[in-house]
Amino acid sequence: MIRVLHIITRLELGGAQRNTLFTVANLDRSLFSVGLAWGPGDELDCEARGIEDLERYEISALVRPIAPRKDLRALRELRRAIRSFNPDIVHTHSSKAGILGRTAAHLEKVSTVVHSIHGWGFTPLQSPAKRRLFLAAERWVARWTDHFIAVSQANIDQGRKIGLLSDDVSLIRSGIDLAPFKHLPGPAPVRRQLGIPESVAVVTQIGNLKPQKAPLDFVRMAAVVASIKPKVHFVMAGDGPLREKVNDLVDELGIADRFHLPGWWHDVPALLAATDVAVLTSRHEGLPRAVVEALAAGVPVVATAVDGTPEVVRDGVNGVLAPAGDIERLAAGVCTLLENEDRRRVMGEAAVLGLEAFDINVMVRQQEELYQCQNCRKS
Question: Domain spanning 2-175+359-378: which superfamily?
Answer without folding.
Answer: Glycogen Phosphorylase B; (3.40.50.2000)
